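User: What would this chain look like folded?
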Amino acid sequence: MKRNIQVLLLLFLGVGLLHICLLTDLYLRYVRAGLRPALIASGVLLIALGAVSAARDGFPFDRPRANGTHGHGHHHGHGHAGGPKVAWLLYVPALTILFLAPPALGSYTAARGDAEAPKAPAPGDTLFPALPSGEVVAMSLNDFSARAVWDTGGTLKGHTVRLTGFVTPGRHGTWYVSRLVISCCAADARVRKVRVHGAAAPPADAWVTVTGTWHPTGKVGTDDASPALDATAVRRVPVPKDPYNDVTRP
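Assistant: Here's the prediction, encoded as C-alpha cells.
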C-alpha cells in the first residue's frame, strides 16, 4: 500500500472516532458508554500516528528517497497499480463512520437470535421484591423476563407494567417488544424478547412503550416458561440515545 494511502487512512479513522465520540452519541450504537474514553484515546493516537508519518515522509509523499526512488515507489517508470487500487477500498469503513454511521442492531438481529432469559436465581438468593400496588410499574425487559420465567412467588400477578423496546416481528403475525443487551460491544449482543398479545404489530424496528399485564406462558420456574404480555396500550416513542441500555423508563 502506498504511504499516502496509509497515512490518510489513519487520519480518517482517527477523525471518524473523535466525531462519533465527541460531537455525537453515535458511538453508543456500537459499544457501552464506559468505553468512550478508550475510543477518544484511540482516535487521538491514530491522528497522531498519521501526522507523524506525514511529517516524516513529507506530504504528499513525493520527496525523493535516499535510494534514488520517489515516495510513490516507481522504479524506471514502472509502477505497481494493482495494489493501490485495492487499498482504496480501505477508505470505505473510515468514511462510513465519519459521514454515514451504521444504525444500532435491531429486529434483524433479534429475530435471528434466540431470546436469552436471565439466569435462574441460585438457591438461597433473595426472592423477587414485591411490586408497588395501584400504579403502572415501569420495568426493564430483563427484570420482567426474569420474573415471568423464574418468579414462582407470582409478583407480576395483578400488576400493570410498562416495557420499552423495539418491535421484532415473529411468525404468523406475532410480534415482540425487544432489547439487545451488550457486555462490551454490539458483537456480543444478547437478545431479550417479550411476546405481545392483544395488539396489532407496529412497523419492525419502531421503538414502542407497551403497557399491559403478564401473560403466563409455560410453567414458571422452569425453562418451559417464556415472557409474554397482554397489551392494553402501545405507544410509539423516540429511539433512545443508548439503545442497549435496558433500564426502566418513567
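The two ends are 53 Å apart (CA to CA). If you want, I can go into more detail on any region.
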